[in-house]
Specification:
The chain is of the alpha/beta class. The chain has five helices and five strands. The protein has helices spanning 29-34, 59-66, 86-92, 109-118, 134-138, and strands at 39-42, 70-73, 77-79, 96-98, 107-108.
Length: 139
């Protein structure tokens, strides 16, 4: 099979007000690195670079271990307790940010989890308590 065509050039559009709201996006790894908010993407439609091991999309991991094509990335996650070690904090700096009033952006942990699991940025069901054990998601 020939490789899929590359993604079209990106542009800004308020998707909450269009017919495309709720539809997964085609995104290049370079665009994804610059994006700091929650995004849902269709890994199959995002070109071969998005599916390569090590891509920031995580599509390669999702396909290998979960067998899915829809990837939901929350952007930075607000977390109360970051590691004290500077090297560990730096390694986590693109994923986690300190949950404190002086730090802007990011999603709270429970909202990020609800986005990843359910595709909703609203309040998590059951007040954020898991109905199933985490190990059930990995089997």
């Amino acid at each position: 099979c020939p490789p899929p065509p590359p993604c079209p050039p990106g542009y800004w559009e308020d998707q909450a007000k269009t017919h495309l709201a709720g539809q997964p996006w085609c995104i290049t790894p370079e665009e994804l690195k610059r994006y700091k908010g929650p995004i849902e993407m269709n890994c199959k439609a995002s070109g071969p670079g998005a599916r390569m091991q090590g891509s920031p999309t995580g599509c390669w991991w999702l396909k290998k271990y979960v067998g899915e094509n829809i990837q939901r990335l929350p952007g930075p996650i607000r977390i109360k307790y970051l590691p004290r070690d500077a090297a560990a904090r730096q390694a986590l700096s693109e994923v986690y940010i300190k949950d404190s009033p002086e730090v802007q952006g990011g999603l709270p942990e429970k909202i990020a989890e609800n986005w990843i699991l359910n595709g909703s940025l609203g309040p998590p069901p059951n007040n954020g308590e898991r109905a199933r054990q985490a190990s059930e998601f990995l089997d």
